[in-house]
Design goal:
With about 1000 residues, the protein is mainly beta. Helix content is about 5%, strand content about 45%.
Length: about 1000
């Protein structure tokens, strides 16, 4: 194919389809490459914010005025001329005066910054085009991306999902290519980076981008850091937004499951206009979700929950073997307390039935008689335990997009763009509950006459709720041009992204005070144990020191009535806020160095700089249980920022051309990170302190090389070798490093030579780790594409890939250690007879994975209609995790895993298939997604999850000329779609069994999509 460089916005080319070789059926497949880069930005972030806003506001009238005085503007191709132009074959581009609008694309191929065709790309690129997106039947971008077979274990919007080790407060969603972690997947919009999300940053929320503004999605699998920098280890998601429309368009979408448990709606109005040669695009979108209550999903949540039920129940647990002791007795139809049982004769005691569990009737309180209790035995609560608990949040979203672009003569063009979203999210976290707190026998409100453990919900009190507001802003200014009529061009991009999140936790309970009050009689003093006191300081407090703990007597807390008024134990609203900011500047120069017999050798050089800011503080726990890097969350308040700069180059050399072609691509990049700027704040004292002498995060040098060989037109082989990296995240520096000796009997269990275990105190390091280095990865993929000449429209693709991911940043604690085989985070100093353990983040772990991706596409036009079939399958053959090389244990997480890992279980295979048929405006589509089952064994218990096979059926009609129905003038170009998502109302199935094969109580939700069968109506109208 011959490349024609056109003056104006960008070089353009008529691109043949990636999987179609015949001239009678040229496709329009094109891919989008990343933003280009140069120069470093200095100055305050807020100043840049105001500057970019000013550019967008001021540029519009300036561009309109400029185009009126531009004598060279007539040389550019106007949209009206393009639409009327005849279709031109690719070999005729140089002679063609104009190009049809439907056949031109910017040469912006995801996976490279050098303008070239997708056929020359050595990387493994998958394109989800508009037809695929519509036929998927999905109404949001994140759900379309979840259909990717390579997107393993992404963050879903449901409550309790993991957004970079913290709770998902905003209903965010991420992409996790290859299952290597969402922080290892780079997200681009129109080739440009966008900012991070969440209280600890580090990941990108794709749910902020409305699906209605998406034209297609380019998915570059595996490493690409030599092109894009940090994070591109699992791959790159490049979301291409629509820019091809004129006039005003309206999109409306409404969804509701078949059981009517929630409502979801989307609405977008967008417009594209030409003011002379100035192009303007703007849109507004509104979306909402009414929230999904856990009690509405019996098939997927706690069918036999161990959580507090809707009524109170009592027991007293436990003996050493786990046996519960009696809480009540029954004799001759009477219910007896412990004291009444003790007063019985030995004969009556032998006849009495001991009850270890009892369910209290509704309204039971301190004045009730135990004779009112009629239900005994361990309760087997169902989904009613989840009433008032959102598994999907209630949210409202409003978003705006605006862009303006224009050609300044023949050689320079500019574009300014802005994207903003405001989101309000409400998570109901269930009713105020007791989960087994001790209700003391001496408490005056205890009617049972003995200590019991009390569980149950107070559904008469307000629910615990988390309300979160977040604002996302993305600004960009792009300039590009060429040097006269030469083939050398330049690009520059200035961008700013921010997300401000403000979260309130409402009606949370002071559990410590309530527990103390329930165990108290309000009179008898209680005992408190203090750590870190000397004998002298302990004596000053009136206590005594024993085993390193100071035992002090304190006044009795007020007796708490769990059946009565608990308002004094309900906290005032607690607040957590965070700001993620990213300022970026890129610039590059590209062109041809010299000519070779096979074609021109292209080269690109560029420079980029970026500053990232994370400012977070919280009054309540934001981390997931046992996963948060923050232990003293009450004092968590830190502002951290870091700058980096990079220089990069690319080269493309055609080595052979003609019927047999061969091309070589090379890329290299150097990234350098400055020392972070960290400020610690003490919110209680109102003081701040800067961290001193923090070292640089270091630098990373990455490179890539690719070969594309085509022995004949219908067959193509690809080889791509890349090195990649992920820079340490700012959240891993948020806390200052602290050190302390462990409390007695809470240190390390040291294995003695005879096999016994001995408690030993240890010096523990916690907090942030300023010495972290980048995670590094080597990736390799080898693939082939074949378009059988005898079967027009058929395309086949196979790619084998491997990833060697090293120096992974992890955090773990090893409480039981072997002195002869110490883990990487534990050290022993013989001179002081002291163990030291590192419980901060540190570079230690690694992942080795291998797998095969398969794709098949077939399309055919017949008198009976147009048929299209696509099939994508990903099969992983190896997924080994080494958590600690010092121990040397290799954990296979493919399909099944033993113990706890940093990755989670990765399914062996995943498949997406799609079939569509269309004729005269009517189209039907069937979309199928499925994954293989996964299981994990921990502590002798195996949890197995069998994912559902999801079928989506879509029927749509477009009002077009020649369609089945007449086209009223107002309806021309309109489209109506009806979709049934999850046609079979399928849910995942979870089983929990022990080593003896006995089925156990399910204690956690599975990974089902939770939606069930959903009916969806979409209307698209051109106004």
């Amino acid at each position: 194919m011959t490349t024609q460089i056109y003056p104006g916005r960008s070089a353009v080319k008529h691109l043949g389809s990636l999987f179609k070789h015949d001239e009678e059926n040229p496709g329009k497949l094109a891919s989008v490459c990343s933003a280009t880069a140069a120069g470093r930005v200095f100055g305050p972030l807020k100043a840049l914010y105001r500057c970019c806003l000013a550019v967008i506001i001021v540029t519009t009238p300036m561009l309109v005025t400029a185009q009126q005085n531009d004598e060279e503007a007539t040389e550019t191709t106007e949209a009206t001329e393009i639409e009327q132009a005849p279709v031109v074959e690719s070999t005729e581009l140089e002679e063609a005066p104009v190009i049809p609008l439907t056949e031109i694309e910017e040469i912006v191929v995801t996976g490279t910054r050098i303008a070239r065709t997708p056929e020359e790309l050595a990387g493994n690129l998958t394109v989800l085009d508009g037809d695929f997106i519509r036929a998927s039947g999905e109404s949001t971008l994140e759900r379309v991306l979840r259909q990717l077979p390579q997107n393993a274990n992404p963050t879903a919007e449901r409550f309790g999902s993991n957004l970079n080790t913290v709770q998902n407060f905003t209903g965010a969603s991420t992409v996790n290519l290859r299952g290597l972690g969402s922080e290892s997947t780079l997200i681009l919009v129109d080739g440009k980076r966008i900012g991070h999300s969440g209280f600890l940053g580090g990941v990108t929320d794709v749910s902020t981008i409305p699906l209605s503004m998406v034209e297609r999605i380019d998915v570059l699998l595996d490493g690409a850091s030599a092109i894009y920098g940090s994070d591109a280890v699992g791959g790159v998601i490049n979301i291409i937004t629509r820019k091809d429309y004129q006039g005003v368009e309206l999109d409306l979408n409404y969804s509701q499951p078949s059981d009517g448990s929630y409502d979801e709606w989307f609405g977008t109005i967008s417009g594209g206009f030409l003011l002379g040669e100035t192009r303007i695009h703007a849109s507004y979108n509104h979306a909402g979700h009414s929230g999904l209550d856990g009690a509405d999903r019996q098939a997927t949540l706690f069918q036999r929950s161990e959580f507090a039920g809707p009524q109170f129940d009592i027991r007293f647990c436990c003996l050493a073997d786990g046996t519960s002791l009696p809480v009540l007795y029954r004799l001759n139809g009477d219910v007896l307390t412990q004291s009444e049982y003790d007063a019985l004769s030995p004969e009556d005691q032998s006849r009495a039935i001991a009850e270890t569990h009892a369910v209290l009737p509704p309204g039971f309180n301190q004045d009730s008689s135990v004779d009112e209790i009629t239900q005994f035995g361990q309760p087997d609560w169902g989904v009613e335990t989840q009433a008032g608990w959102h598994v999907l949040p209630e949210n409202q979203k409003d978003g705006f997009t605006f862009s303006i672009d224009r050609d300044f003569g023949a050689y320079v063009s500019a574009e300014a763009r802005a994207r903003y979203e405001s989101r309000e999210t409400t998570y109901d976290r269930g009713y105020i509950s007791l989960s087994g707190q001790t209700f003391g026998a001496r408490n005056p409100f205890n009617p049972f006459g003995r200590n019991v453990h009390l569980r149950g919900q107070r559904q008469d009190l307000p629910r615990v709720t988390t309300e979160t507001d977040s604002d996302t802003l993305d600004l960009g200014l792009n300039l590009e041009g060429s040097f006269g009529d030469s083939d050398w061009g330049w690009e520059a991009n200035l961008g700013f992204s921010s997300q401000d999140t403000d979260s309130l936790r409402i009606n949370s309970v002071d559990g410590t005070s309530l527990m103390a009050g329930m165990a108290s009689d309000g009179v008898t003093p209680s005992t408190q144990f203090l750590f870190g006191e000397t004998a002298e300081s302990c004596a000053e407090k009136g206590g005594s020191l024993s085993f390193g703990l100071c035992r002090v007597s304190i006044p009795a807390p007020p007796a708490a009535n769990p059946f009565g008024d608990l308002s004094s134990y309900i906290n005032d609203p607690l607040n957590a806020v965070s700001t993620n900011e990213q300022t970026r500047f890129d610039a590059l120069l590209r062109g041809s160095l010299w000519s070779m017999p096979a074609g021109d050798v292209s080269v690109l050089v560029g420079y980029s700089s970026q500053e990232t800011v994370l400012d977070s503080k919280t009054q309540f726990q934001i981390g997931l249980v046992d996963e948060s890097p923050i232990s003293d969350v009450e004092s968590f308040s830190t502002d951290a920022s870091r700058a980096n700069e990079a220089a990069y180059m690319e080269g493309l050399a055609p080595l052979m051309s003609g019927d047999m072609s061969l091309s070589l691509s090379l890329s290299a990049r150097w990234d350098s990170y400055d020392a972070p700027d960290v400020t610690y704040r003490d919110t209680a004292l109102g003081t701040t302190e800067k961290a001193d002498d923090l070292p640089d995060a270091g630098s990373a040098t990455t490179w890539g090389a690719g070969l594309v060989f085509s022995p004949f037109e219908s067959l193509r082989f690809r080889l791509n070798r890349q090195t990649s990296f992920v820079a340490p995240q700012l959240n891993q520096l948020l806390r200052r490093t602290s050190e302390s000796i462990t409390p007695p009997f809470r240190g390390l269990l040291v294995q003695l030579p005879n096999g016994d275990l001995q408690f030993r105190d240890a010096l523990i390091y916690e907090g942030g780790n300023p010495d972290l280095k980048p995670e590094t990865a080597d990736t390799l993929n080898v693939g082939a594409e074949y378009n059988p000449p005898s079967i027009t429209g058929l395309g086949l693709k196979v790619t084998w890939s491997e990833t060697d991911f090293k120096d992974r940043i992890n955090q773990f604690s090893a409480f039981q250690i072997d002195p002869d085989n110490l883990p990487s985070n534990t050290f022993y100093i013989p001179e002081e007879d002291l163990y030291i353990q590192e419980r901060r983040w540190f570079n230690v772990s690694k992942v080795d994975r291998e797998g095969v991706d398969l794709e098949a596409f077939y399309s055919r036009e017949t008198a009976a209609g147009d048929f299209r079939f696509s099939w994508r399958h990903s099969r992983t053959s190896k997924y080994d995790v080494v958590i600690d090389p010092a121990i040397g244990e290799v954990i296979d997480v493919l399909g099944h895993t033993e113990g706890d890992t940093i990755i989670g279980v990765v399914p062996k295979s995943a498949t997406t298939a799609q079939f569509t048929w269309g004729q005269r405006g009517l189209e039907a589509g069937l979309d199928v997604t499925t994954k293989s089952k996964t299981s994990s064994t921990l502590g002798g218990v195996t949890n197995t999850y069998e994912p559902p096979t999801i079928l989506d059926l879509t029927l749509s009609y477009s009002f077009v000329d020649g369609g089945l129905l007449g086209v009223p003038g107002w309806a021309e170009g309109a489209r109506v779609s009806f979709t049934v998502n999850n046609l079979g109302n399928a849910f995942g199935e979870t089983s929990v069994v022990n080593d003896d094969g006995e089925e156990l109580t399910q204690s956690s939700s599975d990974a089902s999509p939770l939606y069930g069968r959903v009916y969806n109506m979409t209307i698209h109208v051109s106004l």
